[in-house]
Amino acid sequence: MTTEEAETGRDDMVIDGAEQANAVPDGFDANYLRIYYDGKHPACDRSYFGRREFSFTLENDIYIRFQSFNSVTELENSIKEKCPFKIDIGPVYSVDPAKRHAYAQGGDNVFTPVERELVFDIDITDYDDVRYCCTGADVCLECWPLMTIAIKVIDTALRDDFGFNHILWVYSGRRGVHCWVCDGKARRLTNEQRAAIADYFRVYKGNENSHKKISLPGPVLHPFLARSYTEVLKGFFEAKLLPNQNLLSCQERYEKILEMIPDASVASELRGRWQENKRASMSKDDINLVRWEQLKSVLQSGKQKTQGLRRCVEEVVFSFTYPRLDMEVSKHMNHLLKAPFCVHPKTGRVCVPIDPNNCDEFDPTTVPTLTQLLEELNRGGLRQDAEDELDGTSLGESVKFFRTSFLQPLLKSCKEEIESSYIAKLQQSKNTLSW
Amino acid sequence: MEVVQSHRKSSSNNVIVSTLPLYRSAPPLEVRLEDFELFAMDRLRVLKGISDGLGRGKKPEEMEKLIADLWKANMRHPQANEEANKDIISHFVLRLVYCRTEELRKWFLSMETTLFRYRFRFQSSEAQRALMSEFKLPYKAVSNAEFESVKDKLGQVARSMGQTLAAADAIFYKVPFEEVPELVAGRRVFIHKGHAYVAMNQVVSLVVTQFRSYLSKALILTNRRVVGILAIVIILVDISFLVLRGYLTNPRKWTSTVREQEKDRLAPIVEALCTSYLGPDYSQENEVGEISLKDIYQIAKTSFPLCMRHLFEKVREDHHLKHGGRMQLGLFLKGVGLKLDDALAFWKAEFAPKVSAERFDKEYAYNIRHNYGREGKRTDYTPYSCQKIISSTPGVGDHHGCPYRHFSEENLRAALVRMGVSSRAVEDVMDKVRNRHYQLACTLTFEAVHGSSCDAGINHPNQYFIDSQRIMQSKDSAYLLELKKSCQVFSFALDEEPLCSVWL
Q1: Distance from C-alpha of B346 to C-alpha of B187, rounded to nearest angstrom
Q2: Does the UniProt entry include the keyword Transcription (chain A) (predicted)?
Q3: For B68-100, how does the pLDDT look when each residue is reduced to its tens digit (9 = 90+)?
Q4: B contact test, residue of A129, A167, A209 with most B CBs within 10 A
């Protein structure tokens, strides 16, 4: 996105504030389901939505925290009035965040988070040491697949290993993805449990000061790592990343991989071979693939006695492809995270959901932008029903996907949860009353 | 808990008595005032020994021996029930002492949990099972059929840890993964659809988690009640007799029987027991005296510990630091005596090549002011101790953490050489690092750089700084003294006006 486009995006936001705000409420369907409880069921918790924290980043980088609302209309009105550049969602607290000062007196924090979705944040800038096509905030179709891989690995683990079902993946608007796990079980996890899950996913450790960034001890990989390797990482590395990023084509790049081999003599053997063959070899095959096969056969041959060497191939693949999560985001209940369907202030792109079953097809360069949407809305003319306004736009698909694949099943499951706990309570009081 | 084997719940003849108390509630006991203090001090020695051992990075086998020795030395009693009483009483007294602030609670919880974990491991397996059932843990033994279906995966997990799956009668338990966060975090269990498959030998973790969670809640409750007690005690006026009746029953009884005098007698003991254990936190800016901005650059070279030197160098080199580094270095500088305005000027100047002044004011100034307690809920954040820094997890692009732990051997050597540590000393330091004694490594570095010994050992970067400055200043004053002496000699010899009085 050029800076020009980004700036026009901003201007439009200010001028056509009302229209922008109209686009936004649909994005807050995530909170509609809370509202649903408020009126419709005797056992629902009316205060739930009012205890949810929101934070707004306004123009001129003014940041306001601990915003809360008693109804979706209040939320909508506040958004329309303030036109925030960014909206973050925080936890549901024990009491209304707006009244938190009244409670902090107790000494022990009576104002504390009680529920919060399990969230993950993956940012492509954390992969800067393994991608050569872009750096920093740039993203292209060569390196974006790293995010796709991350989604596949984490999503599978969240469903198969941890048993979660209501998972929403969202494009962060510029250079990464967010994940929201909304099962009741997930919302009620403690900080310690969240940290445990984050650590379960953690393989990459270290930075430029330490050496080994991936270390896979043990003669065999844990089933989770083994599955990730065979089902996702190995194939992606060999078929896509290796040739596209030319990881073995020149000395500067292949040195990085040779550095990961703990045995210096093996490394120098390979180095010698590759330095000789600087010119393109006779075969038509990609030089990266040829060299990779050579590396594998040397390291995995029966001759190698030390275990450390046989695991080395996996370590290389993991260090380039395995997901790198921001641990701090996941570990604490009070961490705020950008709301889905926000507009990213620097790119103008909408933070749309990503379907994990089709994430290979997601293209960050074609995500609808604010300017684009406004054009489409203006062309469409005024419609009767505000709800359907977005249908004809390029955002329509995303909203539909959001509702059918995520929101409705979640709503259903929440209803069931409320009903079953209500029935259980009735049963209990019946039992105590019966004598 | 449903266990596959038969399990006697309670029978008059063959009761499986667990020797480990769970400290659920205190029995009504009379305690003599001397014992009140003595028992607590003995237990505190054990807890402090544990804290020490953990800080030195002792391996599990070493900790096992250490705890066994500590317990034997401090808590043993020839009569089993006397020992049990002392165990229980001392725990509850220390609860009163350590419930009062978040930091005290955290420390106490951590030490008591560690103590419990190792004592649990010493128990026989029947005793362990009895303890597990007391906790009413919501898990089931895995049926044979299910075991067959997951056997491969269980074997894989075991081998990934360098172990083998135990013999055919291996007992596994199926538990919701939330119950075993430690095992999940370390990928030491197979997890499927939200359930973790836990081996018998891992069950310790389950039990310890329960113990910890219970004690954590109990401490907070105790705190609430203690606050209430003191209020009531002040109201009670009673002339009482000298021997204290300490009812360690539920605190409500405690309330009604603690008299005014006893409050006077207890309060100082309770105070003394805990304040001696927390070292200074370097949060009082006035303790240290002020450092001005221009001094910082000089003293960074001479008196900063390696972790802060590295961060300082990096911020000057890169004109940026990520959040973890800004916190660690920023709070350290606050502890060193850098005032808020100077701190803002420092960061702004260092970031200037990459961050415009307006952007700095928007994105970074607020957080710096927050660190100094001038924003938000006005917490005055304390500089990080070594323990905290060592246990941090620097990631990509980060430069915080403890270099002795987080740097590769090569990088650490290079850094030490740049600090001016002799090659002999570097070897000694690396030896400590290999044995994971990071703070001892830092102490050795200190000694090498300053040419004098540091008996207390380094526990806090600000302590390193203060000790270093002290040596520097005494060196300075020693130097000045020498200079003065030589001036006087000189002027005496020449019979002229002493030069030194003019410019010293």
Answers
A1: 43
A2: yes
A3: 999 999 898 888 788 888 898 889 888 888 888
A4: A209
Given a cut of 70, whether residue A71 has pLDDT beyond it is: yes
CA distance B180 to chain A (A): 8
Rounded to an integer, the average pLDDT of B188-193 is 94
Q: Would you list which residues of chain A are within 8 Å, Cβ to Cβ, of chain B?
A: 61, 104, 107-108, 126, 128-129, 160-164, 185, 189, 192-193, 195-197, 199-200, 204-212, 217-226, 324, 326-327
Helices (H), strands (E): how many in chain B?
24, 4
Contact A327 B223 (CB under 8 A): no
The model's confidence at residue A104, banded by pLDDT at 50, 70 and 90, is: low
User: How buried is A181 (Cβ within 10 angstroms: 0-12 exposed, 13-18 middle, 19+ buried)?
Assistant: buried
Helix, strand, coil distribution of chain A in percent, nearest 5: 55, 10, 35
Joined tokens for residue A398: 């995303």
Picking from A160, A218, A326, the nearest residue to B161 by CB comes out as A218
Q: Mark yes or no for CB contact B191/A197 under 8 Å.
A: no
Mean pLDDT of B295-319: 92
- Which residue in chain B has the smallest CA separation from A123? B396
Contact A196 B185 (CB under 8 A): yes
User: Which residues of A have a catalytic role annotated?
Assistant: 53, 121, 123
Name the residue facing B187 among A104, A207, A224 (closest C-beta).
A224
Predicted pLDDT of residue B124: 75
User: Does the beta-carbon distance from B160 to A224 stay under 8 Å?
Assistant: no
The phi, psi pair for B310, rounded to 5°, reads: -60, -50
CA triple A406-A410-A415, angle to 5 deg? 155
One-letter amino acid for residue B78 of the chain: P
Tell me the shortest Cα–Cα distance from B381 to chain A, in angstroms: 17
Distance between first and last Cα of chain A: 72
Q: Is the dihedral of CA A361, A365, A369, A372 positive or negative?
A: negative
Secondary structure (3-state) at B86: helix
The structure tokens listed for A208 are 């430029």
B281: number of Cβ within 10 Å = 13
Q: How many residues belong to chain B?
A: 504
Kindly indicate the confidence band of residue B65, based on its pLDDT and cuts at 50, 70 and 90: very high
Task: Please state the ipTM of this predicted complex.
Answer: 0.84
The radius of gyration of chain B from alpha carbons, rounded to an integer in Å, stands at 29
The mean predicted confidence, pLDDT, of chain B is: 77
Nearest alpha-carbon partner for A326 in A221, A233, A198, A428: A198
* Integer Cα distance of B487 and B479 in angstroms: 12
What is the number of helices (H) and of strands (E) in chain A? 20, 9
Tell me, yes or no, if B407 comes closer than 8 A to chain A by beta carbon: yes
With bands split at pLDDT 50, 70 and 90, how would you rate the model's confidence at B268? low
Q: Which one of A108, A162, A223 has the shortest CB-CB distance to B157?
A: A223
Note the pLDDT tens digit of each residue in A387-430: 556 666 788 888 888 888 888 888 888 888 888 888 888 888 77
In angstroms, the CA B375 to CA B379 distance is 8
B230 touches chain A (CB under 8 A): no
Chain B residues with CB-CB distance to A209 below 8 A: 310, 394, 399, 403, 406-408, 411
- pLDDT, residue B253, reads 35
Residue B475: count of CB within 10 angstroms of its CB = 13
Place of tokens 């933070």: A351
